[in-house]
């Protein structure tokens, strides 16, 4: 198990800005290079964790992903599990074929994402349906792949985010 703590300047790029309204904060997560390996919970899968702020209300959750599959893997097998996989996103749902740098954009109802008392949103990238390449990469995100989260943090969380530079942990289980 490999675990690496990352800041806004290394590995997983985190960009923080305050567009929308004065109190809202948009966080863009660059997931370029992240990969899907095996079924949910497999130690090979890549995961990461982002601190958003204690009980931070999410206003928008969207993605702009460029996906490439490996070998016989299909695009619709790539899955993003959030919050301990209580929320599951299949960005290429219905695309039962291989793809090369195919763009998928979308969003989900932000009310599905309730950040708990720890203020953490965790992600797992994995395969569903069929694992074509056991213990190997089935799909990965090409350059320019991002996930955007717009939230309205509590004043204390906003100060912590600005001060700490939004720490994130990225690991391959």
Describe the SSE topology.
Blueprint: E1 2-6, E2 14-17, E3 25-30, E4 35-36, E5 46-51, E6 58-69, E7 78-82, E8 87-89, E9 102-108, E10 120-127, E11 139-141, E12 146-151, H1 155-164, E13 168-172
Antiparallel strand pairs: 1-13, 2-3, 3-12, 4-11, 5-10, 5-13, 6-9, 6-11, 6-12, 7-8, 7-10
Work out the helicity level.
under 10%
Domain count: the total is: 1
Low-confidence stretches: 1-20, 162-169
Question: What is the strand tally?
Answer: 13
Order of helices and strands: EEEEEEEEEEEEHE
CATH architecture: Sandwich
Q: What's the CATH C level?
A: Mainly Beta
Tell the overall outline.
globular
Strand content: 35-45%
How far from one another are the termini?
5 Å
User: Overall pLDDT, averaged?
Assistant: 79
In DSSP terms (H or I, runs of 4 or more residues), the helix count works out at: 1
Query: How would you characterize the largest beta sheet?
Result: 7 strands, antiparallel
In angstroms, what is the radius of gyration?
16 Å
Protein structure class: mainly beta
From the 3D structure, determine the CATH topology: Jelly Rolls
Structural description of this entry:
- The protein has one domain: Jelly Rolls (Sandwich).
- 6% of the residues lie in helices and 42% in strands.
- The chain is built from one helix and 13 strands, in the order E-E-E-E-E-E-E-E-E-E-E-E-H-E.
- It has one helix spanning 155-164, and strands at residues 2-6, 14-17, 25-30, 35-36, 46-51, 58-69, 78-82, 87-89, 102-108, 120-127, 139-141, 146-151, 168-172.
- The strands form two sheets. Strands 2, 3, 4, 6, 9, 11 and 12 form a seven-stranded antiparallel β-sheet that branches. A six-stranded antiparallel β-sheet has the order 1-13-5-10-7-8, with no helix packed on it.
- The relative contact order is 0.35.
């Amino acid at each position: 198990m490999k675990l690496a703590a990352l800041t806004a300047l290394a590995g997983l790029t985190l960009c923080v800005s305050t567009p929308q309204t004065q109190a809202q904060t948009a966080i863009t997560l660059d997931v370029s290079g992240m990969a899907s390996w095996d079924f949910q919970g497999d130690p090979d899968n890549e995961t990461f964790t982002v601190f958003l702020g204690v009980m931070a209300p999410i206003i928008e959750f969207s993605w702009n992903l460029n996906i490439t599959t490996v070998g016989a893997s299909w695009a619709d097998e790539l899955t993003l599990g959030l919050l301990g996989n209580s929320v599951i996103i299949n960005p290429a749902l219905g695309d039962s074929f291989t793809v090369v740098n195919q763009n998928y954009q979308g969003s989900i109802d932000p009310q599905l994402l309730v950040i708990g008392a720890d203020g953490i949103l965790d992600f797992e990238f994995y395969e569903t349906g069929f694992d074509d390449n056991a213990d190997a990469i089935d799909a990965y995100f090409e350059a320019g792949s991002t996930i955007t989260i717009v939230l309205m943090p509590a004043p204390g969380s906003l100060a912590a985010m600005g001060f700490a530079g939004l720490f994130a942990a990225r690991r391959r289980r």
